[in-house]
Every structure is written in C-alpha cells, then in structure tokens.
Amino acid sequence: MELDRPVASELAGAVREFLEAEILPTLDDHRLRFRTLVAMNALSIVERETPPPDERTWETARRIRAGDVRPGDLAALKSEIAAKLRIASPRTLDRYS
Amino acid sequence: MRDALEQALGARVEHAVKLAGGASKEAWAVDLADGRELLVRRAGGGVIHLDTLSLRDEYEVIVAAREAGVRAPEPIAYLGEVDGREAFAMERVHGETIGRRIVKAPPPGLGLEMAEELAKIHAVAPERLPFLPHGSLWERLYAELDSVDEPHPAIELGLAWCRERLPLDRPPVVTHGDFRLGNLAVDEHGLVAVLDWEFAHLSDPAEDLAWPLVRAWRFGADDRRLGGVGDVEPYLARYDELTGRAVPLSELYAWEVLGNCKWAIGALTQARRHLRGEERSVELAILGRLAAEMEYELLDLIERAA
User: Fold this and answer.
1) Residues of chain A neighbouring B301 (CB-CB closer than 8 A)
2) Is the model's pTM score more than 0.80?
3) Per-residue model confidence as pLDDT tens digits over B36-89
4) Contact state of A77 with B282 under an 8 Å Cβ cutoff
5) Structural domains in chain B?
6) Residue of A89, A84, A64, A14 whose CA lies nearest to B216
7) Which residues are paired to B126 by β-bridges?
8) Contact B280 A11 (CB under 8 A)
C-alpha cells in the first residue's frame, strides 16, 4: 500500500520543527531543554527512514482517469483506504457500521 | 498597526487585536472610540492561493450580497494598503461560528434559513461581479489534483462517477463557494450572518447547495445530513420554492460525492503548502493524511447508491 504524504518521516520532521521553533525557546529548565533536544534527535532518526515508492497506485489512478473503471475497483479501493485510515484516523471507521 | 488603522479608517481606535488564523489572511478585531466594533481583514505574509479572491474583490462580493438582502456583515470600507498590505473593514458580527458547538443545539429553523440565504446569493446578478472565476469545474479539479503529484485512485473514481451524473445544464450563478457551518455566524434564534466570501465564483447553484451535506461539515452529528443541523428534504424544498429551480435529490447526492472529492483534494493541497515549505505547520501536514477520511466517505456513498 502506498501511504499518503506526509509519510511518517515527514510528520516526524513537522513535529521536530515545531519543538525547535516554538517549544525550545520557551524552556528555561536545563533538564527539560536537554530532554527536548534528545526528543528532537529521536525524531530526526525517524525523518531519515523513508519508504520506497509504489508505482502500482499511479497505474490505477491513470487507468481510471483514462475512463477504464473495472467492476472490482470500488471494493479494492475501499479496503485500501480503510487500511490507510487504520493508521491515520482509526476512529473514523467506527462511524460506518 | 494602530496608527495605520486610524489613518485608513479616519477614526480613533480604542483597541486592535489580531485574531488567531491563517498565514495568508489576517483578521483584526478593532474597537473604535465611537463604540463601533469592526473586523478588519488584511493580507498576510504567506502565499496567496490561486482561485481565491483578492481582498478588494471579496469586499465587492460582500457589498453585492448585502444589496441582494443576504445576511452578511455590513461592509464598512475597502482600506487599500494598511501598513503595507491590502485590507478592508466590515461590521464585527456576534454569533457562534464553531461547528462542533452549533451542532450540539442547532436553532430549529437554521436549515430553512440556510436555504433562504443561498436563494438570495444565487440571485445576485453575475454582471455585477465580472471578476469572479468561472472556469470549467472538471478542469479546475483535475488541475488541483495533478498539482498534488501523488496517486489518488479513489478520488479519480469519485470524479469519474460524478462526471457521468452531473448534467451541468443550469446557467451559472454567483455562488458563495464555501457555504457551510464554520462560515456561518449563528445565535440561539438562528442564522446571523454568512461569512468568508473569498471562494465566491460562478458555478452551478447545486454546488453550493450540496456543500453543507458533506460529512466533514456535520461536525460529528452524522445522522443530521444537512450540516449536522437538520434534514435535507425541507431545506431542498424551501430552496426550490424560492428559486423556481427543481434540483432532484439524486443530483444533490452526486454533488455531495463531488463535495467529498473537492474537500479531499483541498486537504491534499493544503498539506502541500507544508511539504513545499510555503507554510510549515503540523496542522497543515496532518491534512495530507486526513484526506483518506473523505476518500472513504465518497467510496461509501458510491457503494450505497448502487
């Protein structure tokens, strides 16, 4: 499954930047500053882990754009999006039962 | 900023407070010494989006809407540049705008009032606002989706499904472009004012009519299909009665699917502002992952229509 962007590494980068720009400058406590820097370093490790791209999803998107919609598409896409939601927003699926 | 405001408004300013908001547009609550309470909209430092109106044009739309009897904030003045950036002033209306709070206890007539305001907006003469965008719906949506540069077969399927079902045979009218809870000021008696006119454009009136049905704009009150506040049927009947149009429920359903496509694409493009470094923000970043909520909804709607 191809995940939507921002992928985990990019989300980690967004949070690291937030800590750096908006939280770190407000911290006077020595120990908290140090622990925040350690947390930022942990996030930068996640930032360097990038998933490989998936060509298959591009092919499906181009095929449907060209007007070739097949009978199994709807069900296959629905289960693929459900898998994305189980990562990005699990409670959304509870609203469909 | 206070001096610049006093000069532009020609009045003494008691207080001027910048409200929380986006980087592309600022909002200032400004209290004048004569007791008037204003809201000043001003360009921000961030990137201006394509297809949103300039502040001068947005001001003109509000003026035209007021002339047509729409409940919109009273426009006070287009101010030109205030401290280096374009701005206009309007009446600061009171009322709740937070969707989650409104759907907890919606005033009983709100759904019908929404239909009434839409009927008035759609009656504004298009030649009164010659600057409004009026491009092809499909070209606009595909161009936005392509700008995301990420494959989204679910959105492709939604757009293909809608293209087969939307006749687009009505003459285009002036539409608000973002008519939903969140952009409506509401008090215990009902609708106070229609806000946020920057997405106004010429389009099929059903595009506006179906937009508040989109699940994301029900703010958790999923079973009340009209924006979490009421049923669709009386709202549509009131709109048809006032406008002489006859929008079939089945067509409104297809526009609701399209609304989910539009908001999915909107969420993805917002996330690109973060990813491209135009405006770094965790809130914008997260929208890139929440587009899947709209994708699931549009697939579910299509499945249920079969």
Assistant:
1) none
2) yes
3) 999 999 988 665 556 689 999 999 999 999 999 999 999 999 999 998 899 999
4) no
5) 2-91 (3.30.200.20), 99-305 (3.90.1200.10)
6) A89
7) none
8) no
